[in-house]
Amino acid sequence: MSNPIENGGIDGKTTAKIRVWPALAILVVQFAAAQILSVFGSTDIHSAVSLAVVPLTAAVLLLIWWLFASRVPVLDRLIGLLLAGGALWGVSHSRGAMLLAFAVPAMTTSLVLTLALTSRLRWVAARWVAVTCVLGCAGLFMALRVDEIGSGLAPVVSWRWSPTKAESSAAIPVPEANGTAQLPAQAGPADWPAFRGPLRDAILTGTRLSTDWSTPPRELWRKPIGSGYSSFVSVGDYVFTQEQRGAEELVTCYQAATGANVWVNRTAAEFKDDMGLGPRATPTFSDGRLYTLGCTGTLQCLDAATGNIIWKRDLPKDTGGRASHFGCTGSPLVVGGLVVTFSGRSEGKSATAHDRATGAVVWQAGHDTEVYASPQYAELLGVPQVLMVCDYGLQSFALDKGTLLIDYPWKAEINNRAVQPLVLDERVMVATTGFMTTRMLRVQKDAAAWTVKEDWDSKKFRPYFNDGALCKGFYYGFDGERLACLDTATGERRWEGKRYGGQLLLLADMETLLVLSDTGDVALVPATPDRFSEIARFKAIHGKTWSNPVVAHGRLFVRNAEEAACFELPTVGTAAAR
């Protein structure tokens, strides 16, 4: 029997239906697979499968249906194939291949639903509705622009005529602030003077907060901020951070209680990659000075009271190498008389120690490697040293001369390592995301050399750039984007919770985690290995949020690449009185 559409569909004289149900079935399976990955997935690999593999597989199956099982006239099948392919090529060619993560599923879904809804029409009419659908989708996505990669590797898009991130950042005026901060000589116990706190372990002691957020914490101030992923440090009545405004990297000082600008330090530098725009390192306060590292490699020692430059170095010149493809990201480590930074990509010089008083280079060491994580001080087997977690593996350097002590090659195959090492006596935990694992390494030494033995290896805990904190032998961090609890003795994952995908700190006196999600929500989660629960939550800021939260002097400071905000956190017994 001849196909009625084949015989009469071109001129529209028949009303026979095309066969749409296989395409609808493919869509159902596609969305079911995406939903399963959303519910049960955790790492960036799952996100990549959801964003790329699932829709592309569905697109291939729909192509097979269109060419061999749709009952559309042969000539129209070929023309439709060329039209859809040309539309997707136009989107990719003009707006970037990352936009296809949205364009492919949107176009295939819209087309199939359009064909289903018009299936009762004569093909001559339905055909033109389908053509309009394809061209409309192409026009829509060609009007968009990919700004950067967001949470779960999804592209962050905006209308192409809207201001870019760089334009928006440049539009925020640089304040002509040259005041003086009245700072203590030394950071106190309630201060947060460095990246992830004074010990870089994201643990806050001496603070007990109310967990009754039925009335959200009171907002003290909110303001636009220049782009970047630096977090705040807080000392006394002031907070400091780094940001991009136009063609300048800024180090900025704000009053903690009001957000008013105190001083600004300006450097002509600009860095942008697929992840975003602006500096990523966090300042370090020590003895009245502020040590900062810009994304292009400008290392500065500033008077923390005024922002005036005491000394300045150019890391690429000091190392004679090239910067990592994501720039210089490690927050300076101040220990003893040194300030240690990682620059990478120069054999024998991936770590550099400068004299903290003068800026002179004291030592350089380390293999050529990509380094995203920050230097971590530790005393292993009684020896003070600086740990470097990097794409090479794990390295450590003697504090006095930079002698290479631990040399543990473990190449990161796909994604860069970005999480701080966890030190437990003579053990060091090194984490890797994606298809790789987290390992607990036991460090040993004899008269001849330092050696490393693997205690355990876990495929159920794979953080990306999301750091965690230790509480009573259990590490609370992220398996990909999901908050999880890891038994550090065995490598067993005790539980896996919500998909926050952000950063956290531990309120040690409460044994409670304060989590800042990658969408700007703040949540309280008990640090217990028994089960996951969320006891409080509120919306703090909007937009992609990758910077670490800071709690100091009863205030919560949060920021992202668009805005910063400060909240008063009620202490125990004060929530009802507010």
Provide a descriptive summary of the structure in words.
The chain folds into two domains: 156 residues, no CATH class; 404 residues, Methanol Dehydrogenase, Chain A, CATH 2.140.10.10. The radius of gyration is 27 Å and the shape is globular. The N terminus and C terminus are likely disordered. The strands form ten sheets. A five-stranded mixed sheet has the order 3-31-32-33-34, with no helix packed on it. A four-stranded antiparallel sheet has the order 4-37-36-35, with no helix packed on it. The protein has a four-stranded antiparallel sheet with strand order 5-6-7-8. It is built from eight helices and 37 strands. With 578 residues, it is α+β, with helices and mostly antiparallel strands. Helix content is 21%, strand content 33%. A hairpin with a 4-residue loop joins strand 32 and strand 33. Helix 2 packs antiparallel against helix 3 and helix 4 packs antiparallel against helix 5.
